[in-house]
Amino acid sequence: MSSFNQNVIEEFRANAGKVGGPFEGAELLLLTTTGARSGKPHTVPLGFLRDGGTPLVVASAAGADRHPAWYHNLLARPLVQVETGTEEYEAVAVPAAGARRDELFAQVVRAEPGYGEYQGRTARVIPVVALQRTHEVPDGEDGIAGKLLSVHGWLRAQLARVRELAADRVREGGAAPLGLQLRQHCLAFCHTLEFHHRSEDAGLFPYLEQQHPHMREFFRRVGEEHAVIARLQEELVRALDAPGGGAGDGPGEGFSDRVERMSRELESHLDREEAQLLPVLRALEG
Question: Which helix (H) or strand (E) holds 92?
């Protein structure tokens, strides 16, 4: 990270989002992406505009011929952290496409003409990215049980969004390429699901099995379910970038079919986990 950016970030965080110098009076946010190669967090200060209540950021790179690193990062890992002057929240970064991108870029240029000058300097189409706040799980119980319910609620909400977007594609004829919005939400769901199950398998479940040996068979079955869901997740990710827009590689096995199967498997799995684990977790914390 450049020392200039680091100074802006530190000033932003110390002054509730207000900074001086060349950005004085500008509306800024901090965007934290996950490095596409490094896997490490990468924070940049960016100017933004709003489309309704949704922040828009522009991958202008001051008109350079290459997209900025943060844009490549969010294509690989769509789940990002957003900091404004008053709050911090999680979002799915969704680049606009086609006519929608053109509409939003025209809106951006009307508000900030400099972006039009940047587009004039490069042959690449400068992306406009919507930072769509993820589902917020209402406050409930605390502790590990509460955390489990929170993560499960997030996964259910994101999968419901993916199903909705996939159904929209089917209603439009099903032959259209997968949209960026569907791709980004699906990747955010898949990456979070993978991390959650790995954390359970490596940490929570071995600890609980040690405390409750009689649950060994339950944890064995859950491990098998994790393996099945991991295969479905891998199929979804492969289908996202497959030629033909995720039409699938088996008879009748299109993208929407894969999403529906994932939904059935995951909902049953989460329900079983909650029925068995929540009483145990609550007892540990009580």
Answer: strand 88-95
